[in-house]
Amino acid sequence: DEAKEAHDREVVRSIHQQTIATAAAEANITMTVLHEHEALGMFPKIAGLARKLHDNPTLQERFERTVIFNRGKDGAHKRHLDRRVATRWNSDFACLCAHLFFKDEVKIFMSASDNDLSDYVLTAAQWKLAEHLVPVLELFNDLTNLFSQSEVPLIYEVVPMLESLEHALDRVYNALTEPAVVHIAAKAALQVVGKYYALTDDNEVYRIAIGKCLQVAVYHNIDSYIYSDVPRQKN
């Protein structure tokens, strides 16, 4: 939806520079102009190639032949790159995963000059960044898939989910092996999660629901209460 996209763009714009400054001050993490350019250019290339193949049957057929040649018919059950769908953010994750899944085939396919796809070739730094991003984006993908189901999440699950996501992002932000752009993106995500987490304090229903589930746990003599272990109940 256009309104949501506009809102998301504004949120990103408003925290972009603030997060870069915060990361530099807190953890001495800096991102060069080149690193930012590489990061911003990665997804357009990945999504652009998938769209190009989808829209061009000739190129798609060539790509499928490359997959079969490289993997054999028995190992080539999947033969297409997942496309990005603007209204489904987790399609970015699927698009990225497919690109990495077919990394060898993509490199072979892109090396053929007659395909005329040089604009979509990832640099070595972008391939490395893509590999770092998958486990980070998977955090959001799991939650998105859960939220897409009917009647979930239940109210009492929202706060633990936000808390779990916050802890996971904090680990990414403090990890020594992540590229600067991933550190900064994790910090930006933490700011957004923190904003919505804080809003739950203004709505008593979240606390009441959690308290009710604690009562259920005590009633059933559950010594170690874990949210995921409590039987699902409709509110």
What's the total count of β strands? Answer: 0
Shape: globular
Task: Please provide the ordered H/E string of secondary-structure elements.
Answer: HHHHHHHHH
| SSE class | mainly alpha
Number of helices, where a helix is a run of at least 4 consecutive DSSP H or I residues: 9
What's the average pLDDT?
83
Quick summary:
The protein is an all-alpha fold. It contains 9 helices and no strands.
Topology:
Elements: H1 2-27, H2 33-55, H3 57-71, H4 90-101, H5 103-110, H6 124-147, H7 155-174, H8 180-199, H9 204-219
Helix pairs in contact: 1-8, 2-3, 2-4, 2-6, 3-5, 4-6, 6-7, 7-8, 7-9
Molecular structure report:
The protein has helices at residues 2-27, 33-55, 57-71, 90-101, 103-110, 124-147, 155-174, 180-199, 204-219. The chain is mostly helical and 235 residues long. The longest helix is centred in the first third of the chain and has 26 residues, at 2-27. The chain is globular, with a radius of gyration of 22 Å. The two termini are 28 Å apart. 18% of the residues are buried. Residues 219-235 have low confidence and may be disordered.
Sum up the structure in keywords.
single chain; 235 residues; mainly alpha; globular; disordered C terminus
